[in-house]
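task queued by scheduler; priority normal; single chain, no ligands, no partner chains; default sampling; output format set to structure tokens
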Amino acid sequence: MQHTYFYHKLTKYVFLFIAIGLGVWIFRGHKQPISAPRDFAAIKASGVLRVAIEYNNLNFYVDSNGLAGFNYEIVKAFARDMKLRVDIRPVMSETERLEALRKDTVDLLACNLPSTIELKDSLLLSSPIMLNKQVLIQRKRGIGKAPYIKSQLDLARKTLNVPQNSPAMLRIQNLSNEIGDTIYIKEIKQYSSEQLMYMVEHGDIDYAVCDENIAKQYAPHLPHIDMQMAISFTQFYSWGMSKHSPQLLRQFNCWIERFKKTAEYKHICKKYVENLNLKQK
């Protein structure tokens, strides 16, 4: 039993360090000083679309056949149709992705961002890519010592772990107001929401918040995890672009609306997010 426990703990941290290391190593290899803002004409002239993407089991990952993922295949199709080469930059941290866009070292955030007023104030959001919601990640009833959360009211005085600068923070603050009690938020700088799921599974933390679509991808590998309680309503999720790139936004929005009607898009949906709440037209 001790050997099994040690193996699971070792596997957990190997996963965390590999995922973090891949994102940091690749992104630092591309680090640049603050660049001049680029809109679609400048991107076309350069021939390269620079894309920050989050590494996880749904949107971008490496399998036996190479690079894969829902967002990865969509951004590849967009770059192909625009006759651009795509420069993919995996970035684990929400903070670093937003900073890269602010410094104009990337042109596009191919990451699932909720369409909130706060995000719209700081960047341009595309037409919806998918429907999603945020869910509570906890251990199943009877596993561990932490109280099992049955309703949002039970979140009073509990601490929810989220990645640093996660869009979930605003929703948790609003939820705290709705239940009339404090919900504590702990920002974790090093880890993504998927890695926090592993930490809940292994008892390192008690509660985290994650996008439902991503949580469903990891759930089969985390037998002790419960993700039944919603933190937010179902809402639209978009990709992000700089305020300096309105032409890129228009090009992408026109393209994605056409692309949603194609057989290629339906194939990508079936391949990656079948049975999830994906908006398909």
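post-processing summary
- The chain has a mean pLDDT of 85.
- The radius of gyration is 19 Å.
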